[in-house]
Amino acid sequence: SAKEFFQSILETPSPSGYEQPVQDIVRSYVGDFADQITTDLHGNVIACCNPDAPLRVMFAGHADQIGLLVTYINDQGFIYTNTIGGWDPQQLIGQRMTIYTSDGPVPAVIARKPIHLLDQDERKQVVKTKDMWLDIGAKDKEEAAEAVHIGDPVTLELGYQEMRNGLANSPGMDDKTGLWVCMEALRRAKDRGLNVALYAVATVQEEIGLRGATTSAYGVNPQVGIAVDVTHATDCPTIDKNQEGDIKLGGGPVVYRGPNM
Length: 261
Known about the structure:
By secondary structure, this protein is an alpha+beta fold. The protein has two domains: 2-64 and 172-244, Zn peptidases (Aminopeptidase, 3-Layer(aba) Sandwich); 67-156, Beta Barrel (Elongation Factor Tu (Ef-tu), domain 3). Helices cover 25% and strands 25% of the residues. The chain is built from seven helices and 13 strands. It has helices spanning 2-10, 20-30, 120-123, 141-147, 173-192, 211-220, 241-244, and strands at residues 36-39, 45-49, 56-62, 67-73, 79-84, 96-101, 104-111, 133-135, 153-156, 161-162, 168-169, 197-203, 224-227. The strands form three sheets. It has a six-stranded antiparallel beta sheet with strand order 5-4-9-6-7-8. Strands 1-2-12-3-13 form a five-stranded mixed beta sheet, with helices on both faces. Helix 1 runs antiparallel to helix 5 (173-192).
């Protein structure tokens, strides 16, 4: 079902540059209704209905999510990382994480110097990613290096959780919600009948520079393109609607207008 597809992509890791597991799910799902499915050299999955029509319309939603990348293992077996995409480091403190290795996922927790041991100056500073590390429970570097390798990608512990009033939360909703919308729009549009060639693209590497959207757009060469991504709701504390607009969660899609986007 559409909901099962949505939950499945959210529970599957896809840090930028490592999107293949999610793209496999996308290809399988659209295989039931798309007239044409291609995967370009960059890794974008391009599903199309009515491909012979002269007018090409492209929907794009990115498959990748922010993550981390293993860069160093110290003598005590603690693991250091660089970021994939843009993180608020404060959000990482104490989080359960998963490292994806060639032998399967390895659970970890991300840590920093405890607040009880920070001096007054340290407490005033925003934590930096270089001051945090991953702990997989290894006794030393040798044990950690047997399980984890330099270059392995990392995400928050994945999981889909439903809440009240038809809401849900999950890591990676940026932008697997948009990916889902694009693929569902393609399916439903085909059911209603199409007079254009409609392309729905699960793009790669958005979080590190909009890369897949650029390459796939050159490949499809659409006359009309619509990017579907997340935005910020303003019906919550601390957000200034005078600056950010009146955007309500559950209030429908937001259409962004501007001279250059």
